[in-house]
Structures are given as C-alpha cells and as structure tokens.
Design brief:
The complex is a heterodimer of chains A (179) and B (429). Chain A has five helices and nine strands; from the N terminus they run H-E-H-E-E-E-E-H-E-H-E-H-E-E. Chain A is of the alpha/beta class. Chain A folds into two domains: 126 residues, NAD(P)-binding Rossmann-like Domain (Rossmann fold, 3-Layer(aba) Sandwich), CATH 3.40.50.720; 33 residues, no CATH class. Chain A has a five-stranded parallel beta sheet, with helices on both faces. A two-stranded antiparallel sheet of chain A has the order 3-4. In chain A, strands 8-9 form a two-stranded antiparallel ribbon. Chain B is an alpha/beta fold and 429 residues long. Chain B has two domains: 281 residues, Type I PLP-dependent aspartate aminotransferase-like (Major domain) (Aspartate Aminotransferase, domain 2), CATH 3.40.640; 134 residues, Aspartate Aminotransferase, domain 1 (Alpha-Beta Complex), CATH 3.90.1150.10. In chain B, helix 4 packs across helix 11. Chain B is globular, with a radius of gyration of 22 Å. Classes of the chains: A alpha/beta (179), B alpha/beta (429). Chains A and B meet through helix 1, helix 2 and strand 8 of A and helix 1, helix 3, strand 1, helix 10 and helix 11 of B.
C-alpha cells in the first residue's frame, strides 16, 4: 500500500468492514480529538472499546476501559492508535499477537510509523496512517461537506441519512449505493 | 462510477464538486437554504455541534449548506483541503489575517496589488496593530529583506490588478518557506482555471468571487481556501491554531482538524466572531457562475489577447500592458504560470493623456464605464479620473494609474464587436 495517498475504495472498504474498534490512547477529556473520534464512531454504530492503562477499570462514554489490547475479552477488528509515533511499535506488536488477529491497524492524524506498518502488513493486516477515521467517515459519507471541506468525492446519488435526524450521514458500501 | 478512485478533471469539478443531490429532497440543483438557523437532530447533536465534535449546521453566520457547496467547489478547483465563503474578498482577507496576526505582527505584501487591498493593509490594519511591509515582485530579494521575526505571512496576487503583472509564485513561496510563514495568494484575476498557486507552494488562497469566479457581475462574495500545506504547530507562532482555545473548552484546532484546520479556524473563530457571512442567495448565483468558469475564462482570455494585439497597433495608443503579448515584460512568467491565457484585464496608455482617457470612456457604447472587473460584459475605467482621483500625479503614476492609463476588463461578447466599440470610441470627437 502506498501510504502517501490511499484510494477512497481502500478506506471505504475498511470502514464498511470493521465492526469493533479498540482505541489505544483515548483521553477521558471531552476536548481531546480521541474523545471526539470515539464518540463520533460510536454514534455511527461501531462497537468502541477504550484502551488506556491510566484509566483501566473506569468507563469512558459508558464503555469499560482496558489497560492493554490483550485484556480485551472479545475479538477486535481494528486497532486505532492515538499515540505519538515513537510509541506505536509496541502497540502494533501486541495487536499482531492477539488471537484472533485484528484486520486493520489505523494510526491517527500526524502519526506515521513505517516500520510498524511493515510489521503489520507482513502479518497480513491492512494499515492506514496519518488519517482520522472520524474525518474519513465524514468525508466519504458527505457529512463533512457541511463544513466546506473538500471531500474529494463526486456523485449524482444522494448522500444517505444516518437514520435519525437529517444532518448525520451514513457511509454506504459505494458511491452508487441505493438508499 | 466504474472506477471509484478516478480523479475527475477540472471542468467536471467546476460543475459537480461539493454538489451531490440534496440529501433530504433529492433536488439536483443546489437549493438556496435561505434560513438563519437549523434545528438540531437531538440535544446530544446540538452539544456535539457547539463543541466542534461533529460536522453540521447551526446558524448561517457560521455555516450554511448553500455556501458549503460553494466552499467545497472552489477548494476542489484550487486543489485545497477546505474552503470558507465570506461576504466579500476584502472581508476574506481580514478573516485570514485575524487567524494569523496579533497586535505588533507584520505581513509582507507585494506592492503590486489591487488598490483596495493596498488601502486596507496601509490604513485599516493599523487599527488592529497589524503592520504591512511592502516588497516589489520585480525584485525578489526585496521580499527576503522585508522578513523579520515579527513576520506572520507573505501576501501576493498571482496576476496583479490592474497592471497585468505576473508574479513568480514559486520563487516567493521558497522565501516564505525559509521564513517559516505561509504564503497567501489572491488568485482573483487568474482563477484556478488559469493558475493553481497551491501547485507552486502557496498555502492559503483568497478570492474575490465577485469577479471571474461568479463572473456575471451580480453578487459580491469572497472565499478562503486552505491549501492544507502549512504546519501550524511547528513553531507555535500561530496560537489560534496550535494552542488550546478558551472559546471551545480548550480544543486545539490543528491537532483536531489536521490539514484543514486553517479553514476551520477562520470559520469558528474569525467568521463566527467578526460576522461577515456570505448570503446563501449570493452563494447560489456565484455557484451557477462557477459551473461555466472554464468556458468563460477561455473566451475572456482569447478576446483579451485579440484586443491587446489590436490596441498595440493603434496610432492613438502609446503602450499596452498585457502579459499575453509576446514581448511583454511578463510574457515568460505568463507562459509558466498562466499558459492558457493571461487573464482578461489589461491596461493601455493613450498618447492624448488625461483628456483622451476621459473622452474614450465617454464615447464607448458596448463597454460599461464602471469600477469592477470580471463580468461577462466588457468594462472600462479611466483610473485617473475615478478610482485614483484623490492621489497626486506622482502617486497616480506609482500606482500604475497615470493620467494616460485606461483599464479594460474584456467580456465574452463577439470580439469583433468589442474591437469595433473601441475603434469608434477612439475615433469619435
């Protein structure tokens, strides 16, 4: 995978396949990007699991916090890493060792560790770096267009509402998905 | 699309970018959301919107779905990450500076700018404590010399108004990079059809949509495009982007919004607090104009080159300044930056001086005598007797508005009719 420019189909494929996401490094503070992203993805129907050793045993947004990935008592499809670049490799190694293995390693905006990415890809996992799943979901569902952001998508099909209300959008399997 | 990852061309983006069918009604043309406010889906949604935790509409001063289509459209055409529509080009500049500058800071600006911008920088900005340092685009070293530790940005026009000057964007972007400050380019006269400054290292684009992007002389509007290229957190020089914002519970905009954080800062701090929102109705009119930008702009340029060639052979005309003319001082820069055409604004000098200028603007019948550019209609002005009237003769000459100077904005009418009108205007006594 070329980690400088991901095709939309790659990102859309990941966001449409994964159901359970473990977020490593989530903050309990409601003004931090990790908290925003966790809440946003939870609202869009993902099962979100917080991982933060300092918060272990507490809850964030009603979800029980685990100290490490290996403590999670259920399979995880994607590991979303909210840690500085240098702290990524041990998280990736721990993720690869999980049984069953997750399908995706996602490193947040401004986090990119090519060495760790290679480890994960060699183990058969998909990798996304220096992106935010909340922004990518908003971009590919057209919701981010409310903010004048260049979604880099064109379509003659309507964007789809999430189900409740009119401003929140749902991500379909492809641009041409019928409601 | 057969290939979901296909990258669309410029003309396709001009028609489609940002404008999917309306999600609730299926309306295919972009609806005019003529409303001040938007109901929230629920209480949580409202809280998330106010906290910048989700994307959506609150109040038209901060964002509006019609304006958002225009924002995404122009951002896509410029190759930027996000756009922000503003009530006018002038207000767009203030909103950009508000996000970058604090009292005592400096901006380095090209002295070849639209006269209104020169006024704004010289006088209005003083009240904010923002100090302009002028540099000369014909002398690149002057930009380097103008940079000080207080410099927060460099500001240029891609094609300068009115002199037909093409600015070496790439060279100045290197100076900006070395200084660790963003390069802002006013791309109004070129439009992204002729030149995409982000490709040459610009970080922020500002537009007066009033001109060629809207193109029909019916709406005032402005727009900011975030190039997504500048690292706002590196030197901590831009606290609006790199520091926790007390207005939003301590959110840090750059780490939260990444490569479109500048556009968000302009929206949620500048536009929200200063208030120059674009009317959705104007956004609709301008959007309709943008759809035909590639067709109009090429016709504008073709007509202008024909007019420039014709004028340069006239006995009444002393000189013509148009970078599209071979032999013009800026022709080689034009070939690099605006190969499809050097825009539709040109100036020329009349041997008969001030009186000949006054006579020509009085005699024309197709050209409209007014102080705008970038209309489908051909426009003419004699700056010495109008826009620059209050300046001394020496100041007029320095501003490129000497007594003999006439400025044209060439429209998209038949070029033979445009030339015939100038011919009768020059001959009539």
């Amino acid at each position: 995978m070329n980690h400088d420019a991901y095709p939309d189909s790659y990102i859309r494929g990941i966001l449409n396949t994964v159901k359970t996401i473990a977020m490593v490094g989530i903050s309990p503070k409601d003004n931090r990007p990790s908290y925003f992203a966790f809440k946003y993805l939870m609202e869009r129907g993902y099962r979100m699991i917080p991982v933060n050793p300092g918060q272990a045993g507490k809850t964030i947004l009603g979800q029980k916090v685990y100290a490490r990935l290996s403590d999670i008592p259920e399979p995880v499809d994607m590991v979303d890493i909210f840690r500085a670049t240098e702290h990524v490799p041990p998280v990736v190694k721990e993720a690869i060792a999980l049984q069953p293995k997750p399908n995706v390693i996602w490193m947040q905006l401004m986090v990119r560790n090519d060495e760790a990415a290679k480890l994960a890809e060699d183990a058969g996992l998909k990798v996304v770096m220096n992106r935010c799943p909340k922004i990518e979901y908003g971009r590919l569902s057209s919701e981010i267009s409310w903010m004048g952001v260049n979604s880099r998508t064109l379509s003659s099909k309507r964007a789809q509402n999430l189900g409740s209300g009119v401003q929140r959008m749902r991500l379909g399997p492809s641009e041409n998905d019928k409601p | 699309m057969a290939d979901a990852d296909r990258i669309p061309g410029f003309d396709t983006l001009a028609v489609h970018a940002g404008a999917k069918p309306d999600p609730t009604t299926g309306a295919r043309a972009t609806p005019i959301y003529q409303t001040t406010s938007f109901v929230f889906d629920d209480v949580d949604h409202a809280a998330a919107l106010f906290g910048l935790q989700t994307f959506g509409n609150i109040y038209t001063r901060i964002g509006n779905p019609t304006c958002a289509v225009l924002e995404e459209r122009v951002a896509a055409l410029e190759g930027g990450t996000a756009g922000l529509a503003i009530a006018s080009g002038h207000a767009a500049q203030v909103v950009v500076m508000h996000a970058l500058m604090t009292p005592g800071d400096e901006l380095v600006a090209s002295k070849k700018l639209y006269g209104g911008s020169i006024n704004q920088f010289n006088h209005s900005y003083k009240n904010f404590g923002w100090n302009v340092v002028w540099a000369d685009p014909d002398d690149l070293a002057s930009f380097e010399k103008a940079v000080t530790p207080k410099t927060k940005c460099i500001f240029i026009e891609s094609i300068a108004n009115p002199g037909g000057i093409i600015v070496d964007i790439e060279a100045i972007s290197k100076i900006a990079r070395k200084a660790g400050v963003p390069l802002i380019v006013d791309n109004t006269l070129a439009t992204p059809y002729l030149c995409k400054p982000i490709d040459y290292g610009a970080d922020i684009i500002v537009h007066s949509l009033t001109k060629f992007l809207g193109g029909h002389g019916n709406s005032i509007g402005g727009l900011i495009v975030d190039g997504g290229t500048f690292n706002w957190s590196r030197d901590k020089k831009y606290p609006m982007l790199s520091e926790p914002r007390p207005e939003y519970q301590g959110i840090i905009l750059h780490e939260t919004f990444g490569n479109f954080a500048f556009a968000i800062a302009c929206r949620v701090l500048g536009l929200r607090d200063l208030g120059p929102a674009l009317s959705p109705f104007n956004a609709f009119l301008i959007l309709t104009g943008v759809e035909t930008l590639p067709l109009r702009m090429q016709r504008h340029c073709d007509n202008t080159l024909a007019v420039a060639k014709w004028l340069s052979k006239r006995p009444e005309v002393a000189w013509v300044s148009y970078a599209g003319l071979p032999g013009d001082k800026y022709h080689s820069l034009a070939k690099k930056y605006v190969p499809k055409g050097a825009g539709a604004v040109l100036t020329f000098g009349l041997k008969g001086g001030y009186d000949a200028g006054v006579e020509l603007v009085s005699n024309v019948r197709l050209f409209s005598h007014l102080a705008n550019i970038g209309d489908t209609r051909s426009l003419i002005i004699h700056p010495a007797s109008t826009t620059h009237r209050q300046l001394s003769d020496a100041q007029k000459i320095q501003a490129g508005a000497g007594p003999d100077v006439v400025r044209l904005s060439v429209g998209i009418e038949d070029k033979d009719d445009i030339i015939a009108d100038l011919e009768q205007g020059l001959k009539a006594k």
